[in-house]
Amino acid sequence: MQNNTVIIIGGGPAGVSASLYTARAKIATKIFYTKNHALKTAHMVENYYGFAEPISGEDLYQRGLLQAKKLGVEIVEEEVVAIEELDEGLGFNVKAASTHTSKLVILATGASRERPIWQGVEKFEGMGVSYCAVCDAFFFRDKDVAVAGSGLYALHEASALLPVVKSVTLITDGKELTADFPKEIKIIDKKVEKLKGDSLLSGIVFEDGSDLEISALFLAIGTAGSSGLAKAAGAVTNGGYIEVDANMNTSIPGLLAAGDCTEGIQQIAKAAYNGALAGIEAVRILRKDKKLEGKGLV
Predict the structure, then answer these.
(1) Which helix (H) or strand (E) holds 279?
(2) Three-class SS state of 144
(3) The pTM is what?
């Protein structure tokens, strides 16, 4: 067993930022990632430090992985399906296509951005369909928009949109509400058939034949990703987010989390900051105490 190794689950800004610190500290580091990542859905990123010109989310993501690889991080394109804590603080088994053992694990796959199976969703990604209200609300100021979802994630996105856009309609697709939405938000509980528009999204068509004219649809259906793995491993979660302390430790010693899976704004800058904290903490833990005396969440 390799005691002083770090496995990072997620190859986005949080995971890569963490790996930069562990790799530079000469700690063997692996990143597990899949092609289904949030940045891929960002048509253009215009609000991140150091880029005077817009950059596509996919390009930024790939640059991050390349940066980590050049520092000696092992990049593994496999989906992680489970994390199992070993006895006596010996680390974790990380289950992907095969099982990998690591002393310390950093969860950084983000919050899941579930894509409904409605016709037109993929077509209009970046052209009216968005996964981040804070990121894209500005582009639809004084416009009519909708949020797809029925829980706290949807409430968060709708609340971010209200001060900026003309109106917000919640589309539940027939699902039961699990959060209290303000009266300013119109709620439609009909089943969705498809999205419509030419090059840009212009509306939603429901199964009963009615439609809703909108300029944008923000998808906020559930949360999972890292939080699902953490919860299954026994870590404390709250409202779909993983609870962490100031240094990104979860309630399980040796299991850290960073990025959109932790509570707060879902922005690239925040994810990179969280990742840096997690990477620094991982180095501190592995150098200071082989038995992970951080003791997890405080």
Answers:
(1) helix 268-288
(2) strand
(3) 0.66
- Do 196 and 211 form a contact (C-beta atoms < 8 A)? yes
Sheet with 92-95, side-by-side order of all strands? 82-85, 92-95, 99-102
Backbone φ and ψ for 132, nearest 5 degrees, come out as: -150, 105
Asked if the model's pLDDT at residue 224 lies above 50, the reply is no
Strand partners, 92: 85, 102
Which residues on adjacent β-strands are paired with residue 183? none
* 296 falls within a domain: no
Residue 148: domain span: 129-219
Bridge partners for 255 per DSSP: 105
Domain boundary among 160, 189, 219: 219
- pLDDT tens figures, 247-291: 999 999 999 999 988 988 888 999 999 999 999 999 999 998 555
For the chain, what is the domain count? 2
Contact, 214 vs 208, CB < 8 A?
A: no
Give the β-pairing of 92-95 and 99-102.
antiparallel
Q: Any idea which residue has 């067993």 for tokens? A: 1
Q: Are 156 and 172 contacting, i.e. CB atoms less than 8 angstroms apart?
A: no
